[in-house]
Amino acid sequence: MHPTPAGRFLLLGFFGLLALPYFSVVTIADSGSNCRCIFGDSCWPSASDFSKLAKQVSQPLLKPLPPASPCYPLSRPSGDCEATKRLWTDPSWRANQSGAMQSANFETFVFGNDTTSACFINTTLAIPCGQGSVPVVGIDARNDADVQAAVKFAAAHNLRVVVKGNGHDLSGRSTARGSFVIWTHHMKNITFDALFTPTGAPRSEAGAQAITLGAGVQWQEAYDAVNARSRVLVGGLSPGGTVGAAGGWVLGGGHSVLSPTFGLGVDNVLQFTVVTSNGTRLTANMHRNPDLFFALRGGGGGTYGVVTSVTYKTHPNLPLISAVFSATPSGSQTSGVLQTLLTDLMKAMPGLSDAGWGGTAFVAPDATGNVGLSGSFVLFNGTMARANQSTSPFFSTVTSLASEVTFTTSLTPFDSFHAWYTAMSAQEASVAGTNGALGSWLLPRDVIENHSEHVAETLLPLTGLVMGLYAGGAVAQVDPDTMGLNPAWRTALLHTIFATGWVEGTPVNVIDGLFDQVRQNMTALRSLAPDSGAYFNEASLVEPDPLKAFFGDHRATLKAIKHIYDPIDMFVVPEGIGSDDFDDALICKL
Length: 590
Ligand SMILES: Cc1cc2nc3c(=O)[nH]c(=O)nc-3n(C[C@H](O)[C@H](O)[C@H](O)COP(=O)(O)OP(=O)(O)OC[C@H]3O[C@@H](n4cnc5c(N)ncnc54)[C@H](O)[C@@H]3O)c2cc1C
Ligand SMILES: *[C@@H]1O[C@H](CO)[C@@H](O)[C@H](O)[C@H]1NC(C)=O
Ligand SMILES: *[C@@H]1O[C@H](CO)[C@@H](O)[C@H](O)[C@H]1NC(C)=O
Ligand SMILES: *[C@@H]1O[C@H](CO)[C@@H](O)[C@H](O)[C@H]1NC(C)=O
Ligand SMILES: *[C@@H]1O[C@H](CO)[C@@H](O)[C@H](O)[C@H]1NC(C)=O
Ligand SMILES: *[C@@H]1O[C@H](CO)[C@@H](O)[C@H](O)[C@H]1NC(C)=O
Ligand SMILES: *[C@@H]1O[C@H](CO)[C@@H](O)[C@H](O)[C@H]1NC(C)=O
Ligand SMILES: *[C@@H]1O[C@H](CO)[C@@H](O)[C@H](O)[C@H]1NC(C)=O
Ligand SMILES: *[C@@H]1O[C@H](CO)[C@@H](O)[C@H](O)[C@H]1NC(C)=O
Ligand SMILES: *[C@@H]1O[C@H](CO)[C@@H](O)[C@H](O)[C@H]1NC(C)=O
Known about the structure:
Elements: H1 5-17, E1 24-25, H2 47-56, H3 81-87, H4 91-95, E2 109-110, E3 116-117, E4 137-140, H5 144-156, E5 161-164, E6 180-183, E7 190-196, E8 208-214, H6 219-228, E9 231-232, H7 248-252, H8 259-262, E10 269-275, E11 281-284, H9 290-296, E12 306-313, E13 315-316, E14 320-329, H10 334-355, E15 357-365, E16 371-380, H11 384-399, E17 405-414, H12 417-425, E18 435-444, H13 445-450, H14 452-459, E19 465-469, H15 488-491, E20 492-502, H16 508-527, H17 546-551, H18 555-565
Parallel strand pairs: 1-2, 4-6, 5-6
Antiparallel strand pairs: 2-3, 7-8, 8-12, 9-13, 10-11, 10-12, 14-16, 14-17, 15-16, 15-19, 18-20, 19-20
Helix pairs in contact: 9-18, 10-11, 10-14
This protein binds flavin-adenine dinucleotide (FAD) and 2-acetamido-2-deoxy-beta-D-glucopyranose (NAG) (9 copies).
One 2-acetamido-2-deoxy-beta-D-glucopyranose binds near residues 111 and 113.
């Protein structure tokens, strides 16, 4: 039942990539009536203002700290530095802290003069611990009333607000220097409905077997809960299952290996509950506030309000087949063979999609440093015969390269998605706590079909390459205009991602150089399908036209909806809807 060593390697490749981005390089403009109030400004609320807020919420106020702070001051560490070093890359340890992001670079702040405020785990660098981009105060929300009190307080004091669930954002959208954080991590309620009908639905509307998740529930918790009811949920894949199941993931789209079968996260939502910037709690579904429902399904996290719960459809728990392969050129012509392998995989993609496969392929070095192509795919509700038949065109092509390629492959049945997920998780290595940046683009099916060789040629020079078969199938069957999600998802077959990274203390100009590379490589990747777009949740921070890339033709509608529900622009995030009305720091309106 266990995936091959190839499976282990490719998952390493995948998560190795997903550690990513940058820190914010921003210039803080003069405070004025057009600007948010941030910590240090004279407008910042007084201690007595904060104690009034503290009386209105269920938990003590948060004073988030950078996760390396126990190691400082260096002369007399305030906490257990050895334990902190040991846990530094543990995704669950990070998700449990209001001051930590999964991608450590977002905890750092770079001033206009290239001076950095950061709190590094590498104490050898001997740099004092700075607060960086970590919020200074916030609330530990446990229920909707907590969120309502926090939103009203933030509006009254014109604060720079960030909404944070489990801190996985790959563009640093859930942290900001001098901000007030609404932390939803502890909103862990999970409820089931055998016959859920959305609020306000006509009696004729059929009920669905549904699960309602509080905003802080993480995928591992959601998968365990739904499996205990013998049902399946469309959800994400990460080491430890720490990504939020009812936060940024779904608000940006939410891809899954099950998406080709059941659609994206947004295609499975029946209802949201939301607190908007005037402190009102609303229900959003097809019948109540349908425009807000449109926006929340893919229009981006941290933009329209604070979601307090998400209700998803569940699906029957059926067996699946896992396909794992690894093909590493072993001869002298390795790069030419790799190009052939990737071209062959591109040629096979439409067929794999039509057969119902979902999953991920990687180009990465193996344990011995040889760069190869690998993959991990699932066929939900499939038979071994169909799995074999549908993978054999690709597998036999690779087999024909036998003398030049070390090739391993396996087809393995699993009783349930949960069993598959558990086996995969057991092999995952986390790169949480590292610093990186990524670029990505959605590649349409017809581009892959007609230009497989050129696609492979363009992808191959990219580092940390990941190709996700998360679209096609059920994703392609949804009318793109029923929700805010980027319409590019509906014609896409592959979500292609590349990444780069750096160590703590790397000079700002060197990091800028890495971003220039991302920018250049994005130009090449984008040119494969200029009219397509990118996935808001896993994309570059250097898009020349981010709103077009992330929301396509839906961006104007989304902005109009945002103005209805957030007329005071409390909720703005980097490269999100409405961010174009603000300076780079998202503090002052232009
Ligand atoms: C290791 C790893 C694996 C990943 N795997 C997948 C995957 O399999 N599929 C996939 O699609 N994506 C994946 N992603 C990307 C993921 O979808 C995004 O990082 C997502 O933003 C994470 O959501 P979060 O709630 O954990 O993060 P956070 O950083 O807490 O929030 C992300 C964004 O959503 C906003 N937000 C969070 N909660 C709320 C709320 N309750 N109301 C309003 N806004 C809110 C925040 O303000 C922020 O803008 C992965 C990322 C990582 C780091
Ligand atoms: C995070 O918190 C959860 C819930 O309290 C706990 O079970 C888990 O062990 C914590 N993770 C770490 C690494 O401490
Ligand atoms: C850079 O800017 C920051 C913030 O304005 C300031 O505190 C710091 O002294 C400056 N550093 C240098 C070297 O100019
Ligand atoms: C910490 O920084 C020092 C100085 O740059 C470097 O030599 C060392 O390799 C770093 N340690 C780790 C664990 O990254
Ligand atoms: C959790 O769910 C239960 C049952 O649906 C509900 O009664 C309760 O109010 C919820 N708690 C919170 C904090 O939302
Ligand atoms: C599972 O496969 C069977 C047989 O092909 C089919 O009848 C059934 O509809 C499938 N169920 C789902 C949920 O895809
Ligand atoms: C597919 O079936 C063929 C013929 O039965 C067999 O030789 C081959 O090993 C199978 N492939 C896999 C990946 O199981
Ligand atoms: C792919 O080929 C089809 C059929 O020849 C053509 O209609 C379509 O425009 C092509 N698409 C691209 C992106 O080249
Ligand atoms: C960008 O492409 C160049 C080659 O064109 C390559 O050397 C570099 O590693 C790539 N960088 C990334 C981040 O993909
Ligand atoms: C708050 O905003 C909602 C949604 O825009 C609106 O329906 C409601 O009337 C507003 N409430 C108040 C008190 O302004």
